[in-house]
Here is the input.
Amino acid sequence: MEHAQSTQSTLTVLTLLAKYDQAHPEQDAGTRAMRHLVFDQFVAVCGEISLEDFSLSRAEEYRSALLGGWRPRTAEELSRMNCRLSGRARTGLMKGFAPVTAASYLKMIRAPFRWWTIHRRTNVDFWGQLPPIPRVRRPVKVYSDDRLAKLLAEARRVQDGGLTEARVLVMVTAGLRRAECQQLIESDIDWDRGTITVQPHEETETTWRWTPKDRDWRTVPLVDQAKAVLLARRHVLPAEQPYLLISAERYAYLMYLRSQGQMTDRQRKLPDENHRPFRRLRMRAGTAGLSQKHLRSTAATNWLRDGIDLRSVQALMGHSEIATTEKYLTPDVGAVEKARTLGAARLLRLAGGTPPA
Here is the structure.
């Protein structure tokens, strides 16, 4: 027992992070890098303290630094900030982060601590005792029918073998994330049933290893229009290429990088960044202010407006929390106008008047 207590007292927050990484090799590279950044911020603010010295006041100190901006007060704190933090992390910490970002960072740092308390069979969760960060809920951005029609019209004009059109169609009707769209291979599709299965891919001669976000498996619809474009793409791609929504040139380049051991984790996760081409597309379509991720939010919003129940939309979108799906429950223009008209008519009845015809 004394040895166990001694081991716990010498365990610092950074050695805890190393133990957590070792116990969770399934973490993707992006999540791991972000979690290390968050722990570096914590050390810059609070020092590399032992878990025995960690307390609610330390968690509150880091939370306050995230929200209010933080300035080193001593030479030791200044040294920790300059040595441990990248320029971007240092600037953000000194200016303070937006509520959404701060909440995300607290969630990142909480996971290893929770894992350790469960491992030690204790029930002390100081991070869970912090008050939630208040966030202003903003309306979800979606493509209106008119803007979507313009975007699709411009996508059809792009001379790329239907690649741009297929990406837009799949994301806006199947609700796929950008990475899920680009990872689509022919074996994911049931052409007869009209469905797409979002599922992990193994490392083979023609595919690279990939796991969906949250290791989620789900089935989503393949509408007839998207199916027609995807079938046409099968005839313009090399027979050995299984990826339907990556150009032949990009696929050949990625396979070359893989053969040389130079394919990065980022490229495995998101094979084609595609920021600039899509930006040019939306500028030509007059849909500035809306990005690729808003195609996915449009799919969820349209499903809910078309009467699909909330739990089913959660499953289609691959959301782990129902609260994430609920944010798409925004009334459309027709619902707002109907509520305005009915409200005015009700007040007229209460006043003894006659509602307008």
Remarks:
- The first strand starts at residue 189 and ends at 190.
- Residues 275 and 328 are 24 Å apart (CA to CA).
- Confidence is low (pLDDT under 50) at residues 1-9.
- The radius of gyration is 25 Å.
